[in-house]
Amino acid sequence: MGRFSNLEFEPGEERHEERRQEETPRDEKYYTAMARDAFRDGRFENALRYYSRALEFDARMGEAWLGQVQALIELDEAHEARVWADKGLEQFRNDGELLAAKGVAFGRLGDLDKAMELSDAALEEKGGSAYRWRARGDVLLARNDRNEEFCFSKALAAAGPQDAWEPLSIGRVYLHHGKWAPAVRHFEMATDRNSQGAFAWAELGRALARLGMAERSRLAFKNARDIDPSREFAPEGHDADPGFFARLAAAVRGLFRR
Amino acid sequence: MSCPRCGFFNFPGSPACVSCGTPLGHAAGAVAIATAPPRATSLQKRMRRARKVVLGTDVALETRTPRPSLALFALLPGLPQVIFGYNVLALVFATAWAASLALATWLFGSPFSPWFVGGAIGTHFMSAVHPWRAPVFRMGFRDRTLLTLTIYLLLAGGIYWPAFRIAGQHVIPLAVHDIRPNPVFHTGDSVLIRPLPASASPAAGSLVAFTIGNGAGLVIDRVLGLPGDRIQWQAGTWKRNSIDLGPGEVPLTTTAMPRLIDFVVPENALFIWPSANPYFGRFGDPIAETGLVSSKRIAGTAWRFASPFRRRGPVESR
């Protein structure tokens, strides 16, 4: 599969895009807004493509570079995210957000020392954002460090009391690291702040299903489908029960874990 | 990127302007920037998922942080993997290495033993080489290959081969067939033969392995008399230098014995009573028929090889 094979949009997406084009000029701001919407709606593939389009207009758009790295991480392609973060850092040397994203990629890859170094570097850079603290919490979670709660609270504070995306993102971080209960807590926070977010309801459903709360999970998925009937929110998927052998391997690994 | 001539906006990386055809690659400061990130194929994703399940991480070794402890690579199979966090693989390497050595030891003397020695070397080699993909050495493929080959030669040629060579000078593996100098060996036991230095002589009562010619291989039996000893058989009693032999040294077979034996063991010979040895007399060896074996035929002292991995029944005594 070539690197450009995913660049074509689905027909529905194109039509949707065309409709928006009638209203706004088709430039990097337009594609960045589209990408941001897609990203926050959990359509990471689309977000990636929109960010690529935005970069075609302006290759020095820091937000697009960062968005692509974040989307790759969300798509479970940490190797590629690391490579792309390096490429972004060639243009935006010592960019705090990109460093943090690269740290997350390293954390997802298992190089926890390197991840911590990058996270430290990101926090030392000027400026501050919720993402740097969220990334720090992600790395700490990967290290089995129990101080991630502090970092996430910093991220929530930086994002503001009405922001629904930050708790949703934090919940996804918890979900990735298999911490179902705090994930549910943050997804609930996200749905409280924005009850019309289909993606947040779907993620809440996933986390609840992991906790064994089948009825509440079903209701959460129902909410997600009611809000956005065009999308299929399935309770099962690639992150369903990994199976007996995966659990056995995890148990064996646990025996040798530091 | 904009065309320097007509100002038309072209996609980054375009070789020439779509509008006017001006080559953009030669435009001053033109830099082609890829805007689409690399993507993982579905196969890569599946492989990473499988690696994560098996190894506990899907990290590529190229991305791992180099550590000084990499110097410990050659010490123990599995250790590099522990350093890099490949715990399951570390267990596999260490187990394979230990099992190979254990089997090589257990089967010492059999034709299968070298195979397991080779397996141990291979495991050691693989474990040592595996993490060298880390960027700590910053090596290309050719250098890495040369270095791994060097490691292999160091391990195989510098450690294993000398060790087995030295051991081979001291022990000759031998399987006992039907000769059992009571009460040391059982049929099927493994025996190690320790070659004697040229000037040394085995102690009286010890077991030695010697050749009897005629291609009969090695025979193991007990030394009853050293050069200069006076051996006597009188009235059903064996004496060495007029002293009764101990019960453990008394030959088993006394049938067809002459009534009187009395001689002094000559130089360069040992008196070894044939006991139940079927070779004596059978091949017409004049020395062996008298129970005397030339020192030149002595291969060395014999020891039962007690493998810790093999259970044996109680030693019989007849």
Give an overview of the whole structure.
By secondary structure, chain A is mainly alpha-helical. Chain A has a domain at about 165-260: Serine Threonine Protein Phosphatase 5, Tetratricopeptide repeat. Chain A has 14 helices and no strands. The model of chain A has no long low-confidence stretch (mean pLDDT about 85). In chain B, helix 3 (about 85-105) runs antiparallel to helix 4. In chain B, a hairpin with a 2-residue loop joins strand 6 and strand 7. In chain B, the strands form two sheets. In chain B, strands 1-2-11-3-4-9-10 form a seven-stranded antiparallel β-sheet. Chain B has six helices and eleven strands. The interface between A and B is large, with 41 and 30 residues.
Corresponding CATH superfamily of the domain at 163-258 in chain A: Tetratricopeptide repeat domain
Mean pLDDT metric of chain A: 84
In N-to-C order, the SSE pattern of chain A is: HHHHHHHHHHHHHH
Q: Uncertain spans of chain A, ≥5 residues at pLDDT below 50?
A: none
Query: Total strand count of chain A, please?
Result: 0
Mean pLDDT of chain B: 67
**Total domain count of chain B:** 3
Based on secondary structure, the structural category of chain B is alpha+beta
Residues in β-strands, percent of chain B: 15-25%
CATH topology of the domain at 163-258 in chain A: Serine Threonine Protein Phosphatase 5, Tetratricopeptide repeat
Oligomer: heterodimer
Biggest interface, CB < 8 A: A-B, 41 and 30 residues
Per the principal axes of the C-alpha atoms, what is the gross shape of chain B? rod-shaped
Give the biggest beta sheet of chain B: 7 strands, antiparallel
Rg from alpha-carbon coordinates of chain B: 36 Å
